[in-house]
Recover the amino acids of this structure.
């Protein structure tokens, strides 16, 4: 092959390459525009899917929150036009003995509910995981109270606590244990604790379910290694399984705190907050002030306090403590 022929082929190849580059350069803007348009279309579609949920959130969450914040600065009965009184409602609640009693009850509710529910739920879950007989039946039986209406639970336990013909009273008569015939719901010293005991019984099955889900993520090799190292069942539960369920613990604490802040149905059905505000929580106090006393402005101020407490404690636990649920102890 001659040198001239080789040079001619090289020249044609270079010319074709330049033409291809020019062609790609002309088409590049349109090709770049396609992904951007497609991305914008995806964003619009995503917004269309989220818009109904955002609308409901704005109507049922944001609007009521702003409205009660506005109403808290008025003396208002909920029907007639209110009179602006500034921050007087917030001043009044600092001198309200029933408000501070409700705060104390919510603190007791949190302290005496969260730990027992976690411990009992963990023990039940661990025992069910190491046993194979009738596991499904026991899971259903322990979880069943959690799906029953608190109204039904409250009415049933109100009958059980009844000192005149209630189940506890009958057991006390049959066994000679007079303390079981005590009017637990009628005594200011025991009413809140009697209601808390019912709440622990109702929700320990939920804690059990959470711990079962967490234990499913623990490798079987870890438990086998603990057994080979000579750890007993109790030592395995306390020193191996319990620490690996840290995020389940934190999640149950978060849910327990929120439950303490918004508890209404069970204590209201069982005691209506009595006797003499002994078992009254802040939501019950808000209900009594707003609907029974027709003091909507003051009830709105109490609601603002409850809202701030709920948001503050939730943000603190999530950001500082890091309360997240995941199976297997991973964040």
């Amino acid at each position: 092959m001659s040198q001239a022929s080789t040079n001619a082929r090289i020249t044609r190849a270079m010319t074709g390459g330049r033409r291809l580059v020019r062609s790609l350069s002309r088409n590049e803007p349109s090709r770049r525009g396609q992904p951007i348009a497609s991305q914008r279309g995806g964003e619009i579609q995503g917004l269309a899917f989220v818009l109904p949920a955002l609308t409901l959130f704005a109507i049922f969450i944001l609007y009521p929150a702003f409205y009660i914040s506005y109403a808290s600065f008025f003396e208002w009965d909920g029907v007639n036009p209110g009179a602006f009184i500034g921050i007087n409602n917030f001043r009044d609640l600092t001198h309200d003995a029933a408000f501070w009693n409700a705060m104390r009850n919510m603190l007791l509710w949190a302290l005496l509910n969260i730990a027992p529910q976690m411990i009992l739920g963990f023990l039940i879950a661990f025992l069910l995981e190491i046993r194979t007989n009738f596991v499904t039946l026991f899971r259903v039986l322990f979880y069943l109270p959690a799906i029953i209406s608190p109204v039904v639970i409250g009415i049933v336990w109100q009958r059980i606590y009844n000192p005149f013909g209630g189940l506890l009273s009958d057991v006390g008569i049959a066994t000679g244990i007079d303390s079981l015939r005590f009017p637990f719901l009628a005594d200011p010293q025991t009413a809140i604790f009697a209601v808390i005991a019912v709440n622990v019984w109702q929700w320990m099955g939920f804690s059990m379910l959470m711990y079962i889900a967490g234990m499913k993520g623990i490798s079987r090799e870890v438990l086998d290694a603990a057994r080979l190292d000579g750890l007993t069942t109790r030592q395995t539960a306390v020193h191996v399984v319990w620490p690996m369920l840290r995020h389940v613990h934190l999640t149950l604490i978060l849910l327990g705190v929120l439950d303490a802040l918004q508890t209404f149905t069970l204590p209201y059905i069982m005691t209506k907050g009595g006797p003499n505000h002994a078992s009254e929580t802040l939501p019950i106090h808000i209900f009594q002030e707003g609907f029974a006393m027709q003091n909507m402005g003051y009830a709105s101020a109490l609601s603002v306090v409850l809202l701030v407490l709920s948001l503050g404690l939730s943000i603190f636990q999530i950001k500082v403590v890091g309360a997240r649920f995941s199976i297997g102890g991973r964040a």
Summary: DSSP finds 13 helices and two strands in the chain.
